[in-house]
Amino acid sequence: PKSHIFFFKTHKTASSTILNILYRYGESRNFTFALPLNKHSQLFYPYFFASHFVEGVSSRSVKEFNIMCNHMRFRKSEVAKVMPADTFYFSILRHPVSMMESIFIYYKSIPAFQKTRSLDSFLENSWRSYNASITNNHFAHNALAFDFGFDNNVNEDAEDFGEKARMAIATIQKEFHLILISEYFDESMILLRHALCWSLEDVVSFKLNSRSKQTRHPLSANTTEEIKRWNALDWRIYLHFNTTFWHKVESQIGKEQMKREVFKLRELQAKLAHTCLREGEAVDPSLIRNVELKPFQSGAAVIQGYNLNSHIDELTKTKCERFITPELQYTNRLYTRQFPELTGNNKQIKPRAKK
Ligand SMILES: Nc1ncnc2c1ncn2[C@@H]1O[C@H](COP(=O)(O)OS(=O)(=O)O)[C@@H](OP(=O)(O)O)[C@H]1O
């Protein structure tokens, strides 16, 4: 199995669910994580990543890192300074239309969205009134391309658009071993487990960071097309890697084997949900009984979490708890475990605001 792993955590793409898988895998094997400096929850996003953002790099207190997976603005040359040469690089993309719908609600308080009623009204004026130079507005325009380190302020009608899109795709292709697709999350987990030589049990998860139904908004056909035009660079990148994803499925696993493994994975997940979860599924934050397990809330989104079954033994409880521990709390815990000398008992350990 691979033990040097870099997961590039993109925004609103099911990346927190993958982060949880990596945290659990690494924690149970005593792996060392490349965590953000000073107990931050992210690697100083939206600045371009620099190796000294990782705790233990400047101080040289860590000899070797196994896993790096927190939010960053990607820069391969800097990641390569932290991670060993044989590191496996992977990431995940989501359909730019549903991604934008999620982003609009989750980042409702960024300047570009703050005063807009709906995604439709934002898109009606975006070509004229979007101001790229204001902090955090990058979430509103080709957010995926921005995360990967490209210029996100590009227009489909510009003469050099095709060249920019080809360059972005070629760069991602060169720098990553595997690109997963949110819409095919379970299939993605099967591809990942094969690439990492992991067992099926290693990629079992519960969906984290999902929005409550009341904060989801169906989009019209017109809005869908507008989003594809506005986020044309993300759309091109997504189309390309959606195709390569299915090529990989066929060449590396085969469609029939994939079906069988996805079926088994869902069975394992259902069984675990039955054992661990009080309601058997995600619930709104107001219904979460243990405040320690409440996920971070943002913008106009209601982000769901889980309650544990009350009648489970201690060992099972510890296991179940790891599956439903939100990103910020889990990152804090790993940091405390990894750097006990930097987290004296007198320092309070509480989740920081994330975005
Ligand atoms: N397993 C699985 N399959 C499909 N989709 C999933 C899965 N896990 C999480 N999600 C959806 O991903 C959205 C949250 O993404 P992130 O965790 O990347 O968000 S964040 O950037 O870390 O805040 C969020 O999307 P929205 O609900 O549309 O906002 C989650 O519902």
From TrEMBL:
One of its GO terms (biological process) is glycolipid biosynthetic process. This is Galactose-3-O-sulfotransferase 2. Belongs to the galactose-3-O-sulfotransferase family. It is a single-pass type II membrane protein. It is found in: Golgi apparatus membrane. Gene3D superfamilies: P-loop containing nucleotide triphosphate hydrolases. InterPro entries: Gal-3-0_sulfotransfrase, P-loop_NTPase. It comes from Tetraodon nigroviridis (Spotted green pufferfish). Keywords: Glycoprotein, Golgi apparatus, Membrane, Signal-anchor, Transferase, Transmembrane, Transmembrane helix. GO terms for cellular component: Golgi membrane. Pfam families: Gal-3-0_sulfotr (PF06990). Its main location: Golgi. One of its GO terms (molecular function) is galactosylceramide sulfotransferase activity. It comes from the Eukaryota.
